[in-house]
Design goal:
This protein is mainly beta and 127 residues long. It has one helix at residues 105-108, and strands spanning 3-7, 10-12, 18-25, 32-39, 46-51, 68-73, 78-83, 92-100, 114-117, 121-125. Strands 2, 4, 5, 8, 9 and 10 form a six-stranded mixed sheet that branches. Strands 1-3-7-6 form a four-stranded antiparallel sheet, with no helix packed on it. The model has no long low-confidence stretch (mean pLDDT 95).
């Protein structure tokens, strides 16, 4: 069983930065594809970015490309989401998700490709 615990959310002003963390247990990162999703009030959960266990391409949503970066620390079994130049529209609950390491690029953006989810962490961008 894979368990995911997010942390690092909070209140930040527009233009600011935050780094979210996801602690992974139950399996090593090399065995997983890791993704970040977010859900704003009244909206569906949407894909943000993802990375496979063996590295390679990191598909990223158009709305955050150039501002958000996913990274992982295999030694610590941690995944991070660095968020810069935050905007009010980035306000949402952010979720860490884990899926099979064999996911292909086209499926990495799909919620249904991920088998495990964290509890989410709230990010609020407001002045």
């Amino acid at each position: 069983q894979v368990q995911l615990v997010e942390s690092g959310g909070g209140l930040v002003q527009p233009g600011g930065s935050l780094r979210l963390s996801c602690a992974v247990s139950g399996r090593t990162l090399r065995e997983l594809t890791m993704g970040w999703f977010r859900q704003a009030p009244g909206k569906e959960r949407e894909f943000v970015t993802a990375v496979r266990g063996n590295g390679g391409s990191t598909p990223t949503s158009d709305s955050v490309r150039g501002r958000f970066t996913i990274s992982r620390d295999n030694a610590k079994n941690m995944v991070y989401l660095q968020m810069n130049s935050l905007k009010s529209e980035d306000t949402a609950v952010y979720y860490c998700a884990a899926g099979k390491s064999s996911l292909i690029l086209s499926t990495m953006r799909q919620r249904g490709s991920y088998d495990y989810w964290g509890q989410g962490t709230q990010v609020t961008v407001s002045s």
